[in-house]
Amino acid sequence: MSQLFADRLNLLQEAVPLKLLDQCLHGIERECLRITSAGQLAQTPHPIVLGSALTNDKITTDYSEALLEFITPAKPDTSDTLEDLANTHAFVGQNLQDELLWSSSMPCQLPDEEHIPIAYFGTSASGMVRHIYRRGLAVRYGRTMQCIAGIHYNFSLPDALWPILHKVERSKQDLSFYQSAQYIALIRNFRRFSWLLMYLFGASPALDESFLKRYPNHQLQRFDKSSFYLPYATSLRMSDLGYQSNAQSGLTPCYDDLSTYIDSLSKAIKTPYPAYERIGTKKDGEWIQLNTNILQIENEYYSSIRPKRVVKEGERPIQALRRAGIQYVEVRCMDIDPFMPLGIDETTSYFLNSFLLYCAMEESSLIIKNQCIAYTDNFLSTVKQGRDPALLLQCDGEQVLLTDWAKALLDDVAKAAAVLDKASHTDKHSRSVLAQLEKVNNPQLLPSAKVINSMEEGGLTFAEFSLRQSKLHHDYFNHQSLAPEVTQQYVKLAEQSVAEQKRLEDAKSPSLDEYIARYING
User: Fold this and answer.
1) Residue 425 predicted with pLDDT over 90
2) Which of 210, 228, 409, 425 has its Cα between 20 and 30 A from that of 261?
3) For residue 455, what are the contacts with CB-CB under 8 A and spacing of at least 6?
C-alpha cells in the first residue's frame, strides 16, 4: 500500500467525501446466446417481442444475431442494478418460447461459419452501419468469434468527488483534465492487477470442438469426445483464442494520458492495412466492411477495460472522450459464471466495486514498455495456467507466486472495501473480499475449477454441462414473478423501439455511402 493510497483512504472517510462515495454508479451489460432446446445456435431473427435491437436501450444484440445483450442503467445501489438485470432476464426468458439462454461464455456447438447469422439492425443508415461493422468483423476474424459472450461492468466515481481530490492534492490541471487523468491512472492499475480478476472469476476453462475449426494449430488438450481444455486454464475466452489480429499487434495503448490514447486509436482508424485492402470494402456492390484500415472504428480495439463517456446522438465514443473527457470505465474481461442465472452475482459485483476503487486510489506511475509487456504476460499466463499452484508472475522485476501476490492484493482491496462499507452502512464489500480469499486458499472454489469438476463428476461434455445449466436457469427465470407494471414497462419499451426503428427507416437521409463517409470521417 502506497502513502498516496493511505492518504486518499483517510480523506474518503471524512464526512463529505464519505457521503459522496455512496453515489458511485454501477451498470452491467450481459451478453448471452439464444439457443434451441437441443443446444444448437438459434437461427431465428431477434424476437420481435423483445423490440428493436437498434433502438431498445435495455435489450439488444451484439455481434451474432443470436447474441443477446442486456443493459442496465447505471445506479448507485449495486443491488438495484442486479435487480434490473434480473427483471430483464425474467422477461426475456419467459418470452423466448422454445429457445434458451446459453449459460457459458464460450459458445454452444456451432454450425459452419456461413450458418452463423450476423446481427441485423434494419434498413436505416445507422442500422446498416452497425450491421456492416459486424460484417467487417466477420471477414477479419471469422463469425465464430461473434458467438463469444461476457459481462461488461461499468463503474464511475461521483463527479462531485473529483473537485475535493483536486483541491486537496493541489493539482494544477484543469478539473476536467484531472478527472480524466485519474481515470487513466485507474486503467493503468487495472492493467497491472487485472490478472487477479481472471484468476478469481475466470469461468471458461473448456470449450466445444466446433469452436476450433478456424484454429487447427491450437495448443488445447482433448478433454473428451467433443471438448477441449487446458488443465489449469481460468478463461480461454480471454486467451489468444479471442479477438486477436496481426493488424492490432502493434496497437497497445499503455495509457500515459487520455490524449495519447485517443490519438493512437484515431491513427489506427485512419491507417490502411494491406490484408484488409485486399478484401476491399465492397463485394458484388454490397458493403462488407466500413474501411480497410487497422480498425474500422474504435470499438474494434479489443481491450479488457475502456475509458467511456455517454455519447450524444450521432457521436462516436472517441469523439465523446475528446469533447468532455472520461466519465466512467467499462470492465470487459469478466466471464459469464455458468452457475449463476444472471452470469454474475452480488458478491462478484461488490468485489468489483472494491477492486476498482483500489485501482482508482492507489498510486499509478506511467507504464514503460517492458512493464507493459510484463502485465500482458501476467494476464495471459493467468488465463491459461492460473490454477497451476506453481505459477509465477512478474512483479516489479521479480517473480512471485500468483497466490502470494493475490493475498497481498486482496489485503489492500479489503481496505478500499471497508471504506465503501462505511459509506453504504453495510458489510457486503468486505465480505466479498473474504469470499475471494477463500478461493485463493482453496482453488477448488474457483469458477474454472468448478466447471471442470462438474464435467468430470457428471461425465458431461462442455456442451452437455452448459446445456444443463441453461435449462436450470431457464426454469429459474420461468418461476420468477414479475410485477405487472414491470412487465408492462418492457412491453412498452419494445413497442416504442419498433416504432422508433420504423421512424428512422422512413426518414429522409443521405445515401448509405454518404452516411458511412460522414460516420467514419466524423
Assistant:
1) yes
2) 409
3) 206, 223, 224, 227, 461, 462, 465
Q: What are the distances in angstroms from CA 123 to CA 95, 172, 221, 275, 503?
A: 25, 50, 44, 29, 11
**CA–CA gap between residue 303 and residue 281 (Å, rounded):** 25
Cα distances (Å, whole numbers) of residue 440 to 104, 130, 189, 205, 239 = 23, 42, 21, 17, 21
What is the CA angle 136-509-118, rounded to 5?
25
Segment 378-393, tens digit of pLDDT: 999 999 999 999 999 9
Mention every residue, 6+ apart, whose C-beta is less than 8 A from residue 56: 50, 493, 494, 497
C-alpha to C-alpha distance for 12 and 423, rounded to whole angstroms = 9
* Model pLDDT for residues 32-42, shown as the tens digit of each residue: 999 999 999 99
Model confidence band, residue 300 (pLDDT cutoffs 50, 70, 90): very high
How far apart, in whole angstroms, are the C-alpha atoms of residue 51 and residue 169?
48
Report the C-alpha gap between 516 and 133 in whole angstroms. 10
Helix (H, G, I), strand (E, B) or coil at 251: coil
Phi–psi pair at 94, nearest 5 degrees: -85, -5
CA pair distance 335, 237, nearest whole angstrom: 8
pTM of the model: 0.97
Counting other chains too, the contacts that 78-82 makes at CB distance below 8 Å and 24 or more residues apart are: 78/26, 78/346, 78/349, 78/350, 78/353, 78/428, 79/346, 81/26, 81/27, 81/28, 81/349, 82/28, 82/342, 82/344, 82/345, 82/346, 82/349
Q: CA angle 149-453-333, nearest 5°?
A: 25
Band the pLDDT of 252: cuts 50, 70, 90.
Answer: low
The span from the CA of 429 to the CA of 419, in Å, is 9
Domains and CATH numbers, the chain: 3-521 (3.30.590.20)
- pLDDT tens-digit readout, 175-215: 999 999 999 999 999 999 999 999 999 999 999 999 999 88
Cross-strand pairs, 151 = 30, 334
Grid cell digits, residue 348: 462478484
